[in-house]
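[#protein-structures] MJ: dropping Fatty acid desaturase domain-containing protein here for a structure pass
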Amino acid sequence: MACRIADPSVFLFTGPRQRTRSQKIATHSAPCMTGNWHLTWDRLLVKGENNKKWVIPMRRTRTVQAVAAPVAPSSADSAGYRKQLAESYGFRKIGEPLPDNITLKDVMDTLPKKVFEIDDMKAWKSVLVSVTSYAFGLFMISKAPWYLLPFAWAWTGTAVTGFFVIGHDCAHKSFSRNKLVEDIVGTLAFLPLIYPYEPWRFKHDRHHAKTNMLEEDTAWHPVWKAEFDSSPILRKAIIFGYGPFRPWMSIGHWLIWHFDLKKFRSNETQRVKISLACVFGFMAVGWPLIIYKAGIMGWIKFWLMPWLGYHFWMSTFTMVHHTAPHIPFKSSDEWNAAQAQLNGTVHCDYPSWIEILCHDINVHIPHHVSSRIPHYNLRMAHESLQENWGKV
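AK: finished. structure tokens for Fatty acid desaturase domain-containing protein:
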């Protein structure tokens, strides 16, 4: 059984056939005497709280063991219960459940047509912002005394995350009207991250198609309790991974999902091989050049530390976007696209400098309603969704 662990949400599923109403679930892991896990939702962000506008109706989901002391289920339709959840988890709001008869097309049809329009000037302006901010970060690293290096690394890691967002738009065909331009820009944007563009694109498309679906979602999804209990080594790895290594869990995801040709369909492998060749070529040329010019310590200062900063944001953003104690993962026979994309996606406010350098990737609800919305139109789309669907 495929198994990805929601970062940092570890959901222990007791079995594929048992069903119950959803319980209050997990996210900060701490081992209990029983061998299960007690999980609480910590506020992980320095500034800004999760602004959850919608919540999946919590009906007939598979049994979730919320660890040592399960909380009695309550009605998701209760305003008081939603308010209690919001206060407990640090959300500003948890809205009413989405009606069962609403489809994803119904939601998309309420968005203004303008949000889908590609603006070449805005797209290339984003490239300029990322290149300039990244170059400035490298300059700061070269000039900063040792005690200011962490600040320079934080800036540079955040700036290079903007490269990922540009490649992300290219993969969703929302950067340019020219597919070749998108493939070239996306590949180049991913190279400093050592991310193969096409393998990531294929896997990410499946994440959008199967968001918060048990087993099928390629971003993060729960580990089954039986598998968790099956190996002491796996159990210790999870404890370590969701302890000190938690902000960099995306590194494991990067290694597991993007470099194994067996994970791709036969009609995908040629493009995957081209992307892998580009990445390995960048490593073969770029890394020795950095070491030749600045030594091993220069490679650590100018590449490795910003790269770890990027993965900090990748892990944090992915965790915040799709894992929260009240958002269930559902089996394919229970899964509904509108509920998964609108109700299963979280909006979170970050400090403005992060939003600018990361091109509003955290305005994530409209992106899951339609991935064809360019990043510079996400706020306009979010306002529309609030206006039309803000009560749910």
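MJ: nice. Residues 269-322 form the longest helix (54 residues).
AK: one more thing. DSSP finds 14 helices and nine strands in the chain.
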